[in-house]
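Q: What would this chain look like folded?
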Amino acid sequence: MKVALVGTGLIAHTHVQALQSLGHQVVAVVNRSQEGGEAFARQWNIPSCSTSFADALSDEVEVVHICTPPALHYDMIKSSLLAGKHVVCEKPMCIEPERAKELTGLAQEKGLIGAVVFNVRFHEASQHAKGKLADPAFGRIRLIHGSYLQEFHALPDYYSWRYQPELAGPMRALTEIGSHWLDLVRYWTGLEIESVSAQFAAFDSERKLREGMMHRGGEGELLKVASEDVAMLSLRFSNGAIGNVVLSEVSHGRSNRLQLEITGTQQSLWWNNEEPYQLQLGEKFQGYQTLTFPFGDGFGQTFKACFAAIYADIEKGETSLDHPYASFEDGYRNAAVCMAAYRSAAEDGKWMILMDDVD
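A: My prediction, written as structure tokens:
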């Protein structure tokens, strides 16, 4: 199929590589910088480059991949759907759940596939975990907990769009990495988050900018950063289970550690994506066994598996009932949880009920 790609950041390279390996043709790239877009197009042998989003909606384009900062997603998704294009969007789909819900309805009305790139679902061990949790031998899910830890925003750090609310929205750790964890919980368990209590922390709200890097002190332009370095969420689930998660972008030595553990009435299961080929399954008085998937997919290959599933439905012309990828409906529900957590943190951890948000 013929694809237009919007945005040329790091993740866009992963998109093109996966698409080309699947035999799809990226025919146009759109970037805010013509020079940057042309360099990207040359690298990946893409015939057309533009700074105008309208060029992503030409007649030959069938699917639009959106790899831009989150605050730009709504307008781009809506324009693409109205132009009759299928859409594959980087997470989070939208900052505002109301807008995500609107776009979900529009995609359904137009008969178009809308997907959000939650690629962590597609690790082989992750897929196997979903099956284990559905097995009656696991028992009723009682407790869900975990973390997502990274080090990339520990100071000093490059100043980028992620710190600019007009591009990233008002959140950072929650929407950038926490959205993956929240999606994985819903995907594995089939449960919905019904209420949330949250605490946020931006440890250095005032930072000094010099030579493009933010520092705690010294000389430089004073910047104010409001978005969170760390978020801690307590959760209540639709079956009565409880849980929590720690999300940090300032944990030294943690390159990309998403960890999830689920306790049922008969067994427990845990996994982390820094050791993606191993899944642990525990049972009382029997310790735990490590299930190994030596030929499982790594980070880049999860995008290929994700896109293969999405494009299978695009080519079929309808959404499969058991599709493994995240739909716009999933993106909407994810946005609802993130916004409820944001509102909770602003009110000193007040519990926020989501049931009205996710009807």
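Residues 214 and 359 are 42 Å apart (CA to CA).
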